[in-house]
Amino acid sequence: MKSRLLSLLAMATMFTASAQDSLMFRKISDEIMLHATCYDNLRVLCKTVGHRISGSPAAARAVEWADKTMKETGADKVWLQPCDVPYWYRGKESLYLMLDGKYVKVDALSLGNSQGSNGKTLTAQVIMVHNFDEFNALPESAVRGKIVFFNYRWRQDFIFTFQGYGDAVRYRGAGPSMAAKKGALAIIIRSMSTGEDDFPHTGGTHYNDSFAKIPAMALGNKTADKLEAACKAGQPGAKMTTECHMMPDLVRSYNVIGEIKGTEHPERIITLGGHLDSWDVGEGANDDGAGVVQSMEVLRAFKALGLRPKCTIRAVAFMNEENGQKGGQAYADSARSKHEHHILAIETDAGGFSPRGLGFVMSQPQKDKILKYKDLWIPYGILDFSRDEGGSDIEPMKEKLGVPLAGLVPDSQRYFDVHHTNNDVFENVNHRELKLGAVALAQLIWTVSEQGLD
Amino acid sequence: MKSRLLSLLAMATMFTASAQDSLMFRKISDEIMLHATCYDNLRVLCKTVGHRISGSPAAARAVEWADKTMKETGADKVWLQPCDVPYWYRGKESLYLMLDGKYVKVDALSLGNSQGSNGKTLTAQVIMVHNFDEFNALPESAVRGKIVFFNYRWRQDFIFTFQGYGDAVRYRGAGPSMAAKKGALAIIIRSMSTGEDDFPHTGGTHYNDSFAKIPAMALGNKTADKLEAACKAGQPGAKMTTECHMMPDLVRSYNVIGEIKGTEHPERIITLGGHLDSWDVGEGANDDGAGVVQSMEVLRAFKALGLRPKCTIRAVAFMNEENGQKGGQAYADSARSKHEHHILAIETDAGGFSPRGLGFVMSQPQKDKILKYKDLWIPYGILDFSRDEGGSDIEPMKEKLGVPLAGLVPDSQRYFDVHHTNNDVFENVNHRELKLGAVALAQLIWTVSEQGLD
Q1: B267 counts as catalytic
Q2: Is the bond leading into A288 cis (omega within 30 degrees of zero)?
Q3: What is the domain range of residue A281?
């Protein structure tokens, strides 16, 4: 009796994916591991276009590249979807720090979206705080006319580095306006960086319109150590000269979309995307050229294998993830106005590293439906299904249309070494790791297209 | 009734590790992620000693470094354990290939343990085969007096790259004697390499004493492509000049051992090790400086935390893993002659990459004992407990003494890009990934030391 009950329980709670499903997973994997074009495509994007901040001429070239490359996947249809994006322009910038009694030029990057000094040189004392608590305890008189150094160290004890990023990024986002509120002239931050190197990391800051928009720059970890030492040693100074500013007008740009029409349910759409824009440093290789070429790779592999998915599959190279999400908004707005039926939106924007999991933002029954197939992913090293993972570009699909979301979860250890730096280059993406990410995404899309989510 | 039965079933089949266990895992992780010395130690080993083939002066310097560095961990006792090792000497080597009608010097490495041409130049036609089947089908007359090119491509469709290595390494191991049997003068192989680059990979070959010991060299993938094209185009040639040989005498060398004495069961020993020797190229960073510094890190962390394990813990920097395993043999022989009671031997020799699992070669009840705690590893990204993983250095402990084995399972995607090449350098080890491996190992050792295996 007990054993019969156990069997019934087992039947009710377990599900064995069929041998056919398993063979399809293998077919997809073999096609991508042996014949993928994503790595070569990434090389071309990185080496011929390079970094490509929204609104820039480089971003326009990236759109051309994506249009051409998307067509090469064999997609049934490729089109550009307009969106108007901000254009933040860096211009020239320099930072000198008083180190060992004299001003020394250091490597530093203005924070994205920040307003520079209009090319004038700000010279001021630096006041160091380690965190917001220390800053909040300072009287206004201690801050006024100074440059505030937010010397907050990355929490290396967090294992999943996105947790460290979420913790540290407050200083980049809110630091300038907090300092401006107390009359600071500018801020300097220790970069949001796991790196044991000296690359400064840029990334978006957000001004509170109630306060002055003061300049803000980031230092690499080693230079931040030097400034920390200088602050401890006496009264350190900085000379900051920056030209960066937001351009007055929005710029017409585009999402690039490729589509394979579904055979049984063409009206049901599964979207997979990464973002085409990057910050204006490095080559935007891991952030997020990798996601763009992986998305294209899924279409290419389906076409090469002659797979004809039941649902419509779209690969999207989104524009303007980094500082506006205008592409993601435009995609969701278009879906809404056309009354499209989106069953799943997936993002890959966590680097081209070895994939370890798939994350979901959806109802429990929907998750359970996918998790019935989770053992199929074991041979591909996809073992973590625990994370709530979507992405900035697809978030509007959830907010405006209630679409379930999913995201690729690559190994996170190296991402914040290179993220938003001059070191985010093609050479820091491994060809097998990149392809394996595309494999897991293609397998997910095939599964949902065949089995549905409801 | 059903729900009561379910509860009973749950109690019988599940085990919830205590909150105390979970806190100890966190304590170990925080200590290592915030205060580890393993990354700095690896830098010193790589940059001041560099590569260190068994028997060489560099290997002797590595022993000195390991003795000093092991003592710095705070181990209760550090000692050298003698072993006599072979010394394979590369000397000068060059390879010219007939490419586009003229001889061009290419980058190539003699295979480890191979006998060179005594500095004379072998000039011969090259005959290409893609695998052993093709080679076996050739008549002796087609091979005699030629240089055989074993052009076997790495199977990129294998997801776990050690599977690809096991598949391809036959050509490096057995190729020379197979070719010699049919009268070949020398062989050239396409390297055992996942890389999309041109680094040649060395590594051990094994002669069958029944046949001539002919020279053997490896090409990087891009040069192998060129030779393949030349073979297809006509009658290609090669000029090989090598001096490598096995030195006539064994050299006295050492394992370096550090120990923390157990408090409750000092006679029960848990060994953790990596290997100190490397091939004579690059810096032996991932193979296996990483494993050596991780092993030392576990002792350092236990001491820094004031942990007093019930069992005795040893970290071992094994000598001569690459071409003789004399250190591993000496360690097992010593354990047997001293009637030591080893409850577990663990190896870390798969690169300093992001750890994904722990593997075991032990009885199912022993495995089950460890797996009761597996949920404790989830926050550290250790999700794969499926592999039979030990290591060459600890294999004699199993063979001679029946000791259960375990091994760290890092992500395998990048290992065979750099393995046995000039590109196996410190810069290709990430500090967080290296430390996370040490975290998982320390957690495993603590668990087995406290809970036992039986």
Answers
A1: no
A2: yes
A3: 16-87+249-451
